[in-house]
């Protein structure tokens, strides 16, 4: 009888484990015109692919959240699986938007990603992101939110150049003409560009069991670069924080053209932004 109970328990445990794994292993494929994105909510690397006109450009993109000074945690590695909804918002029968929601005790984090591709061959693509954190714990909570983005343009990580300008704009370029840009609002508290081979790297520090602080190192870094932005904020009970980020990929004949255009645009919007360095 005891053996039979033990066997039943083992089978039940296996069933529970199997259903848990099914619930957490969620891969969302977004597609729009010349572009596709893979969001894997069970993978700590989360956004594991962004392909534009047949070229892969993204190695990984993650969010980390620190609550009340505790070490930051990768949102995709939280024990509770997120609610995931993907949908088609422009009637081409391909999902181009995904909404993710993670619930912790008294804290809810939501992320929305919307992919917009363009005509095949144009080399241009955009991801709009909205991220929110809501505090319903009943008391004030301090947060540090980090976004970590690791582009490997054209699938060749070693030949990229990455620079952060103005504290909220990251630009990366590849010698073949591919370029990527990340801009975020509100103004980050801190930022950092670095090589994934740095010891410790930005990701090493985000994954370490101690609170991370980004060092406002703008680069340029040449090689397999990655960038992170940090937002520190306090939410009273019932308050929420909203973050929006725009990511663009473009194929430009001269890589310098986009960088110069980006810097020109930045000069125009720089006034009023406080300096970070
Ligand atoms: Ca669609
Ligand atoms: Ca490259
Ligand atoms: Ca990289």
What does this structure look like?
- The structure is a single chain.
- It contains three helices and 18 strands.
- The protein is an alpha+beta fold and 277 residues long.
- The protein has one domain: Glycoside hydrolase, family 65, N-terminal domain (Beta-galactosidase, Chain A, domain 5).
- A nine-stranded antiparallel beta sheet has the order 7-8-9-10-18-14-13-12-16, with helices on one face. It has a five-stranded antiparallel beta sheet with strand order 6-5-11-17-15. Strands 1-2-3-4 form a four-stranded antiparallel beta sheet, with no helix packed on it.
- Strand 9 and strand 10 form a beta hairpin.
- The longest helix is centred in the first third of the chain and has 23 residues.
- It is globular and about 55 Å long.
- The site of one calcium ion has 7 residues, from loops.
Low-confidence stretches: 9-23, 263-277
Sheet/helix structural class: alpha+beta
Q: Total number of helical segments?
A: 3
The level 1 CATH classification is Mainly Beta
Integer tally of domains: 1
**Main sheet, how many strands, which sense, barrel?**
9 strands, antiparallel
How many DSSP E strands?
Answer: 18
Write out key terms for the chains shown.
Beta-galactosidase, Chain A, domain 5, globular, 5-stranded antiparallel beta sheet, 277 residues, disordered C terminus, 9-stranded antiparallel beta sheet, alpha+beta, binds calcium ion, 46% strand
